[in-house]
């Protein structure tokens, strides 16, 4: 699509043929050309006008929701979380390594599922699975009778669900959900939203966690993340379309109706 936009049509045809596409390359090129409007591409103001504004706002929300799961709080502060749950420093570091390995392994699971199950289905499944583990973790944090290893189990379950679903899907979704005219800028805005809220929540976590005099700040924060992740199910269900098995031009027609 980039080659078509810069006028290198023959090279674009070679790319279409090289990836084993069963579609007619000339037809595909024609559809891409029809979807390109040079004026919209060259003027950022169109990002904030209909029908593109709605997609840009959804992209911002997708980036924010990804961080409202609390995933990077777990990744950045896992050792502190485990220490506050009663683990020794050496043991807490070991649990953090286990969480990282879970993230790695289940990312491969997500890679295998994303084209079989579909992006939206994975997001919906992940929202429910993550909210359950986050909710149980928050509850367990307040229940003194529940041991630290159960908290570890909850965090590993949460990370596994995240990595296999939202962690794998978000970057594919941000690349697919925007029309050709605004794809590069829309994807960049969605990515910026993701990293902005990443830094925002990472900065706030130790401040909020230490603000509770009873030492229950971490549990309270994760209760909030559990609620936010559960609510994301309804956002994904209402505002996202399934992109699996559709060309970007087919999606564009569907999204801009």
How confident is the prediction overall: mean pLDDT? 87
Largest sheet: none
Which series of helices and strands comes N to C? HHHHHHHHHHHHH
Question: Structural class of the helix and strand makeup?
Answer: mainly alpha
Pick out the low-confidence regions.
none
Task: Record keyword descriptors for this entry.
mainly alpha; 79% helix; elongated
In short:
The chain is mainly α and 257 residues long. It has 13 helices and no strands.
Write the layout of secondary structure elements.
Layout (H helix, E strand, L loop, with lengths): L1 H4 L3 H10 L6 H11 L2 H5 L9 H17 L2 H14 L4 H29 L1 H24 L5 H17 L1 H11 L6 H29 L5 H23 L8 H8 L2
Helix pairs in contact: 2-3, 5-10, 5-11, 6-7, 7-9, 8-9, 8-10, 8-12, 9-10, 10-11, 11-12
Commentary on this structure:
The chain is mainly alpha-helical and 257 residues long. Helix content is 79%, strand content 0%. It has 13 helices and no strands. It has helices at residues 2-5, 9-18, 25-35, 38-42, 52-68, 71-84, 89-117, 119-142, 148-164, 166-176, 183-211, 217-239, 248-255. The radius of gyration is 21 Å and the shape is elongated. The mean pLDDT is 87.
């Amino acid at each position: 699509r980039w080659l078509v936009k810069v006028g290198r049509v023959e090279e674009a045809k070679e790319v279409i043929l090289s990836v084993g596409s069963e579609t007619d390359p000339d037809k595909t090129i024609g559809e891409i050309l029809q979807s390109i409007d040079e004026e919209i591409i060259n003027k950022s103001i169109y990002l904030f006008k209909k029908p593109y504004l709605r997609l840009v706002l959804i992209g911002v929300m997708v980036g924010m929701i990804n961080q409202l799961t609390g995933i990077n709080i777990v990744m950045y502060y896992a050792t502190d979380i485990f220490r506050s749950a009663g683990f020794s420093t050496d043991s807490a570091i070991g649990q953090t390594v286990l969480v990282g390995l879970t993230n790695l392994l289940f990312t491969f699971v997500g890679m295998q599922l994303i084209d079989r199950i579909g992006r939206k289905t994975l997001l919906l499944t992940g929202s429910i699975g993550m909210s359950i583990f986050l909710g149980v973790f928050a509850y367990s944090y307040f229940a003194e009778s529940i041991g630290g290893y159960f908290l570890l189990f909850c965090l590993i379950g949460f990370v596994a669900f995240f990595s296999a679903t939202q962690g794998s899907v978000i970057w594919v979704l941000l690349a697919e959900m925007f029309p050709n005219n605004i794809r590069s800028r829309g994807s960049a805005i969605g990515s910026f939203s993701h990293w902005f809220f990443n830094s925002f929540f990472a900065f706030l976590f130790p401040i909020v966690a230490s603000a509770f005099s009873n030492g229950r700040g971490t549990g309270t924060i994760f209760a909030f993340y559990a609620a936010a992740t559960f609510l994301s199910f309804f956002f994904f269900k209402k505002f996202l379309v399934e992109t699996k098995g559709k060309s970007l031009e087919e999606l564009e027609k569907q999204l801009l109706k």
